[in-house]
Write a structure and sequence with these properties.
homodimer; about 240 residues; mainly alpha; about 75% helix; DNA-binding
Chain lengths: ~240, ~240
DNA sequence: GTCTATAGCATGATAGAC
DNA sequence: GTCTATCATGCTATAGAC
């Protein structure tokens, strides 16, 4: 939080945003590898990190299409160019894969949301920034968001709880912005949690029903504007 | 469409609604059995229909919890009190189960929505009725709605297309109501499909995130009121 | 109409060569 | 660090007794 930083509002253009996110992805993967909490047995970082990235990307791709339970590790090995044995040098079990992926996306999401919101004080602007950033994030990391949403219920208790926690945090972020706006007399008095739930539901629709929106030729930016309009109409005191 | 019928607006109380739906469920199952399109090999209707209902309910219960792909037919046989062999007298394959369930819920949903909307002409009232009826339906048939949403992507092409078609029909229903309201000058001029998509997203949140709403002690009726308020705020010309 | 028993296969995971 | 070969298990589906 450097008070001197000049902050422009909102995440800027999607392409610039995408570049930033992609760069931060590798950094997060490298950090996770170095922490060693995920028990990767390959020691050489120059070999391990790119392979980890490919394994995670392939997992997301296959799981998005046919579901994580229906994805076989042979499938996965084939897609990554590894053999079954090779694959098992990176994970201890199929379940480990989920933990790895969940941690990676969770970290990145939190980092990006915090970074983009930092220094934005006005409630209306803050809400708009949160909406747009979340939409951009879920556009760039769509496979991850889709995975986190769709597979959560089938996970072992610990990981499911973690997934639910991340969702609740996002909802709490929006509820906080709304409550703050109410205190300042900018938004009308309605239950902030219900309002945040509505916002989150339409945000999730963007990545859960990607096919539909693509078919209709709706861009993220166009959708973002519509969601912002909805939120303002609903929240503003008229 | 009997013009003489006296129509009260909205689906009435949830408990009465629940009774009506449960009664119509057996009727739909019996009809499907008699049509014989699903290849059930048991001929005695008094035996077959109750068993079919139990098989479908058990499938929905297990699939909601751990996912359809992870549900084994041994699981299912155990829950229904049938053996593996007995189960296979009712279905030809695991996939058949999905077709059966999808058809049953789809028919019932269509029937109920049409029945409740019949005779309601005012766009505002029509929208409110559609919202409330859909929420009531997804509350009473929650396992089916959850299943239809969550398992769609993993299904074989034909069934997936059918699931997507049903979703699109629901969205088109709402879009039609909204467009009608616009023609009559009741609603403001925005893309009816986008607006319908928003409404559908918050309606789906009710059954997709049931745990969250239950935790907060939010009732269907309370949620319905909030959604109606959101829709009106967003659509009304002010 | 329902059961038990089993065929046939794909899966997650590991051992050991290189 | 990665591969091939293999194990044990659990699955869908069917055959045939009752």
């Amino acid at each position: 939080m450097t008070g001197a930083t000049v902050q422009s509002c909102g995440p800027g253009s999607l392409t610039a945003f995408r570049r930033r996110v992609k760069r931060s992805m590798e950094a997060v993967c490298r950090a996770m590898f170095r922490e060693g909490i995920h028990g990767v047995r390959v020691r050489n970082e120059r070999v391990a990190v790119p392979n980890l990235v490919r394994i995670m990307e392939a997992t997301l791709a296959v799981a998005n299409e046919k579901g994580f339970a229906a994805m076989s590790l042979r499938d996965l090995a084939g897609r990554t160019g590894l053999s079954m044995g090779g694959l098992y040098a990176y994970i201890g079990s199929k379940e480990d894969l989920v933990a790895l992926i969940q941690a990676q996306g969770g970290r990145q999401t939190r980092q990006v949301m915090e970074a983009e919101l930092e220094g934005v004080a006005d409630p209306r602007e803050r809400l708009r920034t949160a909406i747009r950033t979340h939409l951009y994030l879920s556009e760039v990391l769509r496979p991850w968001f889709f995975f986190a949403y769709m597979e959560a219920r089938q996970l072992p208790a610990r990981l499911r709880a973690q997934a639910i926690g991340m969702e609740r945090d996002t909802e709490a972020l929006f509820a906080g912005i709304i409550a703050d706006g109410q205190r300042r007399g900018v938004f009308r008095e309605i239950d902030p949690l219900v309002a945040a739930g509505f916002v989150k539901a339409v945000l999730q629709d963007w990545y859960l029903k990607h096919g539909k929106h693509a078919e209709r030729g709706l861009s993220v930016d166009a959708y973002a504007e519509q969601v912002e309009a909805l939120a303002m109409k609903y929240l503003e005191d008229t």
